[in-house]
Amino acid sequence: MENRGTNLDEFLSRFCGIDGVEAVLLAGSRTTGSSDKGSDYDIYVYGSRAVDAGSRRQAIEPLASYAEIDNRYWETEDDWIMKDGDRQPLLGNRG
Question: What sign has the CA pseudo-torsion 63, 67, 69, 75?
């Protein structure tokens, strides 16, 4: 897997600290080495209940230059661009 960068590592740490979160799965082409310039990570969160939009916003916005929280076009997800320029989707907020 390629270098994730400190912003993504900090995000993962912040999200793992939210009450009810039991697992955070980092997936997508960037985790397998088959990525290209436009690739991102897919991040799935699993827990005893769905994480509310306010808690997700608190974890994401300090590290993002742009964020869409609680986007429901396909499924409930959050999309953001990290301050270092990486674009990230948070998919499958499963409770």
Answer: negative
End-to-end Cα, the chain, rounded Å: 28
Helices (H) and strands (E) in the chain, counts: 3, 5
Instruction: Return the CA Rg of the chain.
Output: 12
- Cβ pair 28, 42 in contact under 8 A: yes
Name which residue leads in pLDDT, 93 or 88. Answer: 88
Model confidence at 80, in pLDDT bands (50, 70, 90)? Answer: confident
pLDDT at res. 94: 47
Provide CATH code, domain 6-94: 3.30.460.10
Does residue 93 contact residue 50 with C-beta atoms inside 8 Å? yes
The structural domains of the chain, with segments of one domain joined by +, span: 6-94
